[in-house]
């Protein structure tokens, strides 16, 4: 089992924690990690874009000039794609971009992402986030103490003080254990997670 240090919000080591190898020490499956990221980004697309083809734009029923003798190239309609106001070639239409992954694949992808953070020494375990008030500057100072300026902060339960304190920091995102995903884990340099959140993740994914 991998053992990591547990820090307090001052950035001082206060304990050690053994991580479950079934969650934080698996063989990394790069294919499923990639698939999970692509799937999440695809599922976030609305797919509502639309443009008209030459058969859908109005007008253009009459041939603009006769076929021969004008010196111009032959034209059949002013709504052809090469004309201003004409239709679009291969116009985009509303479509569903969603992709599906089964539950087992998602679990392997998340465990692979968590393992990569442990291997890169980018998993920072905190005993608890104890904030007396909603204060962005104080939260930024905590991350500075932990040497994690760009971080995904994971807590077991929703903590309004943590969420609101971190909201205005552009390089930080907060989430709960039941909402973690591969894309966010990989997007942020560090994964700052509370001790009880680690236990919750191990309980679900072990």
From TrEMBL:
GO molecular function term, any single one: rRNA binding
Function: Forms part of the polypeptide exit tunnel. One of the primary rRNA binding proteins, this protein initially binds near the 5'-end of the 23S rRNA. It is important during the early stages of 50S assembly. It makes multiple contacts with different domains of the 23S rRNA in the assembled 50S subunit and ribosome.
Entries under PANTHER family matching the protein: 50S RIBOSOMAL PROTEIN L4 (PTHR10746), LARGE RIBOSOMAL SUBUNIT PROTEIN UL4M (PTHR10746:SF6)
Annotated InterPro entries: Ribosomal_uL4, Ribosomal_uL4-like, Ribosomal_uL4_dom_sf
SUPFAM superfamilies: Ribosomal protein L4 (SSF52166)
Protein's name according to its UniProt entry: Large ribosomal subunit protein uL4
Any single biological process term in GO: translation
Keywords assigned by UniProt, alphabetized: Ribonucleoprotein, Ribosomal protein, RNA-binding, rRNA-binding
UniProt subunit comment: Part of the 50S ribosomal subunit.
Pfam family, one: Ribosomal_L4
Organism listed in the record: Wujia chipingensis
Similarity annotation: Belongs to the universal ribosomal protein uL4 family.
Stretch list, region Disordered: 44-87
Coiled-coil region(s): none
GO CC annotation, single: ribonucleoprotein complex
């Amino acid at each position: 089992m991998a053992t990591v240090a547990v820090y307090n919000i001052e950035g001082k080591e206060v304990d050690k924690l053994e991580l479950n190898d079934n969650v934080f020490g698996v063989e990394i499956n790069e294919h499923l990690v990639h698939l999970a990221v692509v799937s999440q980004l695809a599922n976030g697309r609305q797919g509502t874009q639309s443009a008209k083809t030459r058969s859908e734009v109005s007008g253009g029923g009459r041939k603009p000039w006769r076929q021969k003798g004008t010196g111009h190239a032959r034209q059949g309609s002013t709504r052809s794609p090469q004309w201003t106001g004409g239709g679009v070639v291969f116009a985009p239409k509303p479509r569903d971009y969603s992709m599906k992954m089964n539950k087992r694949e998602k679990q392997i992808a998340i465990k692979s992402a968590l393992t990569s953070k442990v291997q890169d020494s980018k998993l920072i375990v905190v005993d608890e986030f104890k904030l007396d008030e909603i204060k962005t500057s104080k939260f930024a100072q905590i991350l500075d103490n932990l040497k994690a300026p760009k971080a995904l902060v994971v807590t077991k339960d929703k903590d309004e003080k943590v969420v609101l304190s971190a909201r205005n920091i552009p390089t930080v995102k907060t989430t709960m254990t039941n909402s973690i995903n591969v894309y966010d884990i990989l997007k942020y340099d560090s994964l700052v997670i509370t001790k009880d959140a680690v236990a919750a993740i191990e309980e679900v994914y072990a």
